[in-house]
Amino acid sequence: MQRWVIGVLVILLGGCSASLKDYDDSVPAFQLEEYFSGHLTAWGIVQDYSGKMTRHFCVDINASWQEQDGQYTGTIDEHFIFDDGERTRRVWTLVRDASVATAYTGTAGDVVGTARGAENGHAFHWRYQLELPIKGDDGEVSLLVFDVDDWMYRIDQRRVFNRSTLNKLGVTLGEISLYFDKQAPANTCALEREAANLGVRHAPVPEVVKRLG
Question: Which of 25-29, 43-47, 135-139 is the least confident region?
């Protein structure tokens, strides 16, 4: 009986998975290369398997695209500043599919293999494997590879919300939520940190980020 119940739950949950088709005709159109162009700032949180927030961070992003013979290639340079002072960098190289304008591939230094995704309506979805350093109970750091299910939703001309799950052997072990903003003149993480020290914010941050951060 217990196995039957578990089997039914797996089928039901699997059938409830979101699909890009769910966002047919939604607006505004995502337009990856139009939104990720120039300077952006993002704020994010990391949650563990229980939903507990374990870290928060800010990201300064510089993005640009080049077109040659109908092939669009983008570079997204991300500089992360975590609440504990750690700084990391990830540089994405993205390529828009020449035959399917809404499909993209991507590579980065800590991404295993190639990320593959597509946009539809106001949503962008892609999957990839990400190698992350994980500290064990003994203090030793090991590199583990996680399957990432990554969704982005364009809210308006300035803002995008991003939610990613980190999975291992089919089990969700963590989640990352991000809020992107293309404020002009551009905000930066350095300005954000300075404002926090002064008790002032240069740009509005979603209430969920302020509460959890």
Answer: 135-139
Report yes or no on whether pTM surpasses 0.90: no
The 10s digit of each residue's pLDDT in 177-206 is: 999 999 877 778 977 666 666 554 433 333
Radius of gyration, CA atoms only, the chain: 18
Calculate the CA 201 to chain-centre distance: 23
CA angle, corner 31, sides to 29 and 33, nearest 5? 170
Angle among Cα 105, 156, 97 to the nearest 5 degrees reads 20
The kind and range of the H/E element at 68 are strand 53-68
Q: How far apart are CA 186 and CA 121, in angstroms?
A: 26
**In the CATH hierarchy, which fold is given to the domain comprising 28-212?**
Lipocalin (2.40.128)
Residues in the chain: 213
> Structure tokens of 38?
């120039």
Decide if pLDDT at 3 tops 80. no
| Residue 85 buriedness (CB in 10 A; 0-12 / 13-18 / 19+) | exposed
In this prediction, residues 34-51 reach a mean pLDDT of 96
Looking at this protein, which amino acid is placed at residue 51? G
